[in-house]
C-alpha cells in the first residue's frame, strides 16, 4: 500500500504549537480587556442555513461554502461572525439590551487565496447591540486602544462618521447614488496617496503592473471640493471638528455627523485617551456599504511613525440586524485581524514564540529512577509551575538540554545519584545561557562552567525556579502580560 501524500487543502494551513500558543496568549489578553468593559463571550455553530447566510444579499453567496446535509437541508459555513450574531439577536428575544458580546471563531470564505490570505481564518469580533448612545462606539474604540497598548504595539486609531462623508457628497455636488463608489476610492487614500485617488475619482489611472483602473469620471470642480475636504487641518480632535463644522456650515444634515464625532471626542477625553493615540481622520470610510454612523480603524505604526497595517476596524450599522429581526436594531462593533496582529507583533517586537507550554524540563539521568523524577515534576506542578518530564530515548544530559533549548524551555532540573543521596537538585537557567549564547556540548563542560546553575535542597526547588522564571521572563508574550 503506497503512503498517502500529506498536504493541505488550497487556502488552508496548519497552526503549529509555537504560533498557536502565541496566538492564544494574544487572544487571552484582548479577551481580558473586553471583559473589563462588560463584554461576554458568544459561540455559534460553524454551519448555518443557506437562507440565513444569504440574508445580506446574494453577493455574499459567491464566498460561501454551500452544500446539502444528509437530511436535505441547504447549509453553509459561516463567512463572518455578524450574520450569526444577527440570527442570535432575532432568535433569542429575551436577551438584554444593550447586548455586549465578543466572539472568537474561525470563518470560511471561498475566494482566491493569496500569500498571507487564507480560506479559513480566525475572526475576533466585539459588538454592542441595542443602543444608539455614542458611548457604545467610544467603548469599542477605547477597548481597541487598551488592547494594543497592553500588547505594547505602537498604534493610532482613526475615527470619523459616514454621515460626514454623506455631507461631502452633497457639498461636492455629486449624485447620491455615486456616494459608495467615492467612499471606496477614498478608503485607498493612505495606501495609494492623493494623486492616485484624484485620478480614480476622475479619468482613471494605470497601476504599477500596467493594468488600467477606470475612474468615476467626476468633474474637476467636484474633485477640487473633495481635495479641499481631504486637506482639512485635524492635528487634534478639536481642530478636526472645527474644520469640518466650518467647511459644512451651509450643508444640510452635516451637523448630525459632526455632533456624533464631537460626542465621541468628549467621551474619549473623559477616559483620558490622548489625541496622539486616537485621532479624527475625516477621510476614512471603511469600505462596507452598511455603515451608518461612526467608523473607526486601528493602524500599527513603526518607530518612525510609518504605517505598518490595519489590524482592527469597524463602525456603527444601525440597519443591518433589522433585516433579520424585522425591527430597528441599533448596533456598533469591530473586527480584529488576529493573524495579521500576531504577525505584526512578531515583526515589530522581534518576538520568537515558544513552542512549549513547559516552564521547566525535569531531565532524567537515571531512567531506572524515573518515578523519583516524576515526583519532582509533580512537586513543581503543585506549585503552579508547568513541568515536563523528559521521556525521550536520550540518556545524555547534553542531548536532553538540547531538547529543552529547541523547545525554548526556560529552566531545567537535573538530579543524579549524588543529588538524590543529598536530598538536592541542580537547577539550570537555560534562558540565561541563551542570552549569553553559551552552548553546552557535554556533561564535563556543563559541570565545569556552571553557568546559570545552582544546587538547592529539594524543599527549595519551587522557590528557586520561580525566581529564575521571574528574572528571565521566558513566556510567549512580554513579561508583563
Describe the 3D structure:
With 481 residues, this protein is α+β, with helices and mostly antiparallel strands. It is built from 19 helices and 18 strands. The chain has helices at residues 17-36, 50-53, 82-91, 134-150, 162-171, 179-186, 189-192, 194-201, 220-230, 237-247, 254-270, 322-325, 338-349, 370-382, 397-406, 417-422, 430-435, 443-449, 461-472; strands at 40-41, 47-49, 66-68, 74-77, 99-108, 120-129, 155-161, 204-206, 212-214, 278-280, 294-301, 307-316, 331-337, 360-362, 387-389, 411-414, 424-429, 453-457. The strands form 4 sheets. Strands 1-5-6-13-12-11-7-10 form an 8-stranded mixed sheet. Strand 3 and strand 4 (74-77) form a beta hairpin. The longest helix has 20 residues, at 17-36.
Keywords summarizing the entry:
481 residues, alpha+beta, Rossmann fold, eight-stranded mixed beta sheet, five-stranded mixed beta sheet, 19 helices, 18 strands, elongated
Produce a short descriptive summary.
The chain is of the alpha+beta class and 481 residues long.
Amino acid at each position: 500500500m503506497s503512503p498517502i501524500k500529506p498536504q493541505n487543502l488550497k487556502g488552508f494551513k496548519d497552526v503549529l504549537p509555537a504560533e498557536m500558543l502565541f496566538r492564544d496568549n494574544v487572544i487571552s489578553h484582548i479577551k481580558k480587556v473586553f471583559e473589563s468593559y462588560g463584554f461576554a463571550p458568544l459561540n455559534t455553530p460553524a454551519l448555518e442555513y443557506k437562507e440565513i447566510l444569504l440574508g445580506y444579499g446574494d453577493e455574499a453567496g459567491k464566498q460561501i461554502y454551500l452544500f446539502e446535509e444528509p437530511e436535505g437541508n441547504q447549509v453553509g459555513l459561516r463567512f463572518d461572525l455578524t450574520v450569526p450574531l444577527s440570527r442570535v439577536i432575532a432568535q433569542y428575544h429575551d436577551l438584554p439590551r444593550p447586548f455586549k458580546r465578543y466572539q472568537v471563531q474561525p470563518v470560511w470564505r471561498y475566494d482566491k487565496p493569496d500569500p498571507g490570505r487564507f480560506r479559513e481564518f480566525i475572526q475576533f469580533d466585539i459588538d454592542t447591540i441595542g443602543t444608539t448612545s455614542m458611548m457604545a462606539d467610544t467603548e469599542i474604540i477605547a477597548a481597541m486602544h487598551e488592547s494594543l497598548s497592553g500588547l505594547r504595539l505602537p498604534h493610532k486609531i482613526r475615527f470619523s462618521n459616514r454621515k460626514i462623508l454623506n455631507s461631502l457628497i452633497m457639498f461636492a455636488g455629486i449624485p447620491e447614488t455615486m456616494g459608495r463608489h467615492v467612499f471606496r476610492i477614498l478608503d485607498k487614500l493612505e495606501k495609494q496617496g492623493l494623486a492616485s485617488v484624484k485620478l480614480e475619482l476622475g479619468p482613471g489611472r494605470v497601476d504599477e503592473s500596467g493594468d488600467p483602473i477606470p475612474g468615476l469620471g467626476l468633474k474637476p470642480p467636484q474633485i477640487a471640493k473633495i481635495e479641499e475636504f481631504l486637506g482639512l487641518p485635524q492635528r487634534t480632535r478639536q481642530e478636526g471638528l472645527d474644520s469640518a463644522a466650518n467647511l459644512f456650515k451651509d450643508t444640510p444634515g452635516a451637523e448630525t455627523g459632526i455632533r456624533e464625532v464631537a460626542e465621541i471626542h468628549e467621551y474619549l477625553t473623559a477616559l483620558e485617551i490622548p489625541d496622539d493615540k486616537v485621532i479624527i481622520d475625516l477621510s476614512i470610510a471603511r469600505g462596507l456599504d452598511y455603515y451608518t454612523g461612526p467608523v473607526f480603524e486601528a493602524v500599527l505604526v513603526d518607530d518612525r511613525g510609518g504605517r505598518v497595517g490595519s489590524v482592527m476596524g469597524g463602525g456603527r450599522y444601525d440597519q443591518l440586524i433589522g433585516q433579520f429581526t424585522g425591527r430597528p436594531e441599533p448596533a456598533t462593533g469591530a473586527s480584529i485581524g488576529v493573524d495579521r496582529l500576531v504577525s505584526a507583533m512578531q515583526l515589530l517586537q522581534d518576538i520568537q514564540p515558544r513552542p512549549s507550554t513547559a516552564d521547566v524540563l525535569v531531565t532524567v539521568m537515571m531512567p531506572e529512577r524515573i518515578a523519583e523524577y516524576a515526583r519532582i515534576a509533580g512537586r513543581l506542578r503543585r506549585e503552579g509551575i508547568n513541568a515536563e518530564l523528559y521521556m525521550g530515548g536520550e540518556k545524555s544530559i547534553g542531548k536532553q538540554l538540547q531538547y529543552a533549548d529547541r523547545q525554548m524551555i526556560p529552566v531545567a532540573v537535573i538530579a543524579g545519584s549524588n543529588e538524590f543521596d543529598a536530598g538536592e537538585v541542580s537547577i539550570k537557567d537555560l534562558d540565561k545561557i541563551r542570552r549569553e549564547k553559551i552552548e553546552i556540548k557535554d556533561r564535563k563542560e556543563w559541570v565545569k562552567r556552571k553557568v546559570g546553575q545552582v544546587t538547592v535542597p529539594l524543599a527549595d526547588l519551587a522557590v528557586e525556579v520561580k525566581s529564575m522564571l521571574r528574572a528571565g521572563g521566558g513566556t510567549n508574550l512580554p513579561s508583563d502580560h
